[in-house]
Amino acid sequence: MSLLTRNLDLFDPLDAEIGERGEMAGQLEVIAGHVKRCQDCGLHRTRTHAVPGEGDASSGLMIVGEGPGENEDLQGRPFVGKAGEMLDRILVAAEIERPSVFITNVVKCRACEMVEGRLQNRAPHMNEINACRPYLVRQVEVIQPRVILCLGAPAGRSVIDSGFNITEQRGQWFEGPYGSRIIATFHPAFILRRGGAGSGARDLKKMVWEDIQKVLAYLSG
Q1: CA 88 to CA 78: how far, in whole Å?
Q2: Interval 49-95: pLDDT, tens
């Protein structure tokens, strides 16, 4: 079982507020409102906007990345920078309309630190991931997607298993909550950082495309 599970005997005011909203879109709005007001970790101190996620509340596909970057922080939307542009191209090639999926991140605020007078992205710390996990868990509970696609090793380690190794385990299926299946592939940002314009990028894109085809085959089956 993935890390996206919790003891459902635990019930708090957020659960009650979610339960008061009958439709799924409204339930996601409740979660988003709490995300935008959240101060459960230090990331709220440097954020411009929290980024709860966006997309179809009844989607069969949920895409989960690591966390928002600078562009996402400025706009309050997931995957709107260079990596987002690549994700958009992947979705177009797969004939998936972006509004038809739900896109979010493991952490909902930009993880960054001051370097030479400028905020630079960094990997989120475990306490930040743990503080944000209840929001992601509840989003999964509301949407109950058939497939959860993790983009990148950090998302895989946060959603599938803490020991997840993307080099060895990308493209493999894992059991998720509510009958869902989870699969991970390389993050578009990784392709941009490591691949450049050479053969490395082509190889990475080929592997990502193979993983996307597995997702499409499962969703259509």
Answers
A1: 11
A2: 999 999 999 999 999 999 999 999 999 999 999 999 999 999 999 99
Q: Per the domain annotation, does 114 fall within a domain?
A: yes
Structural domain boundaries enclosing 108: 13-220
pLDDT one-digit tens code per residue, 12-34? 888 889 989 889 999 999 999 99
- Considering the domain boundaries, does residue 110 fall inside one? yes
* pLDDT at residue 195 in the model: 64
Q: CA nearest 95: which of 190, 215, 202?
A: 215
The number of distinct structural domains making up the chain is 1
pLDDT at 54: 98
The residue among 9, 46, 44 whose CA lies nearest residue 132 is 44
Q: Is residue 132 part of a domain?
A: yes
In contact, 151 and 103? CB cutoff 8 Å: no
Is residue 8 situated within a structural domain? no
Phi, psi dihedrals of residue 4, rounded to the nearest 5°: -90, 45
Can you give the CATH number for the domain in which 111 is found?
3.40.470.10
Helices 126-143 & 24-37 angle (0-180, nearest 10): 160
DSSP 3-state of 199: helix
Is residue 102 within 8 A of residue 63, CB to CB? The reply is: yes
Q: Give the CA count within 13 Å in the CB-facing half-sphere of 73.
A: 18
Q: Which two tokens stand for residue 127?
A: 């306490």
181 Cβ contact list (under 8 Å, min separation 6): 146, 147, 148, 173, 174, 175, 218
Count the residues in the chain. 221
Of 88, 178, 174, which is closest to residue 139 (Cα–Cα)? 178
Cβ contact 86:188 at 8 Å: yes
